[in-house]
């Protein structure tokens, strides 16, 4: 017998885990255990519990649904990590690259160029890649990598002929050079999926690949449309490991150690988890028992991947189900308006958001509206006024999501004082950095706002706690601590508090 709509929906959204086959113990049921970890924002642990589970029928569909939800939240979180990392790393690498003297870092400029390219600034990245290639003090291996990076930056600017020339090479090149070239060509769409798969297979037997080589493999697998293979690479990696460690002596003879990280890894992980979410949710949507909930989340995943037409179809399919809980119908309408905004119907979207805000007092719905405005970079004056009023009057525990949404809006407007005030208002004061009590995406955004206002210690405290679950934030910690040391004119190597 088919489970009632509300019951299936609540499995995912309210976590009422009373399955039609009877209540299962979390100790015996990986899906139930994964959902509990999902609720605690332990996304990596939750995903690993279900990834290898062999479940059929309704249980299998529920597993795909929970896994899709988990990957989707993990993607959003890693995107937030990437934004915060970019703020600190670009500052740090720029300071290092500008330092003078014979003992200056030779590799900071390469990582600065790669970070700029990862954040979409191809023109400035190209200038730095050119300087690395011309620096005889840089090892030839890394000058070759700079040449491939320059090709990617030029391709992004439309100079495809020079890019192709820079990407020329042979199979006798070192593995990192070959993988860097294939990854760049894959991102550019120069190679087909078969060629990309061959390159990934050729590298599969490489003993103990470097962090950089693993990152290239992830990019190659993603470009080949093989996210499950990319996930296998990630699962075998130490995501907290530095890409390169440079050791040298300063003019005073003091030994110095600098650890460099690939900022692109964070954006790669966000893309990977989003692709995985889409695939798992599509599988869940193929089963009538989990289809309604899967449609709701699938609209979100497809929208984030830029597949707006399919996202709109999924959102409309969900809204066509009258049994859906009202709060989630409103959230789906807010998302549908965002999709319309991205498709060029900006005025219609803003009118829809305004109308919904005027009719709703639900802080969760208002949060969805504000986040839509933030994503679209739309002014949404009336929506913001309504949300501000609700936040001032609301119970602190009920408005946590609304505080995050308003904080996100003002963070992207570079109004850091307001961003901090709103996010702190919704923060659990007793467990201020615990991800079980606070959305880690909010904490990452709050850490960025702290960094922008030079509250370094507060930001570092957040990432120290988050690093217990997500090792990849090591790169944010090191960059933030390094800038802190520079600002305080502290001597010595980078240290994590």
Chain-wise SSE layout:
Elements: H1 5-13, H2 30-39, H3 43-51, H4 57-98, H5 108-118, H6 122-133, H7 140-156, H8 160-166, H9 175-188, H10 193-203, H11 211-223, H12 227-235, E1 244-249, E2 255-260, H13 264-285, H14 291-304, H15 308-319, H16 326-342, H17 346-359, H18 363-376, H19 381-393, H20 400-412, H21 416-425, H22 440-452, H23 456-466, H24 474-487
Antiparallel strand pairs: 1-2
Helix pairs in contact: 2-3, 2-4, 3-4, 4-5, 4-13, 4-14, 4-22, 4-24, 5-6, 5-7, 6-7, 7-8, 7-9, 9-10, 9-11, 10-11, 11-12, 11-13, 12-13, 13-14, 14-15, 14-16, 15-16, 16-17, 16-18, 17-18, 17-19, 18-19, 18-20, 20-21, 20-22, 21-22, 22-23, 23-24
Describe this structure in words.
Mean pLDDT is 89; it is low at 1-26 and 490-497. Among the domains are: 5-70, no CATH class; 72-267, Serine Threonine Protein Phosphatase 5, Tetratricopeptide repeat (Alpha Horseshoe). It is mainly alpha-helical and 497 residues long. The protein has 24 helices and two strands. The chain has a two-stranded antiparallel ribbon. Helices cover 67% and strands 2% of the residues.
Compose a concise summary of this entry.
The protein is mainly α and 497 residues long. It has helices at 5-13, 30-39, 43-51, 57-98, 108-118, 122-133, 140-156, 160-166, 175-188, 193-203, 211-223, 227-235, 264-285, 291-304, 308-319, 326-342, 346-359, 363-376, 381-393, 400-412, 416-425, 440-452, 456-466, 474-487, and strands spanning 244-249, 255-260. Strands 1-2 form a two-stranded antiparallel ribbon.
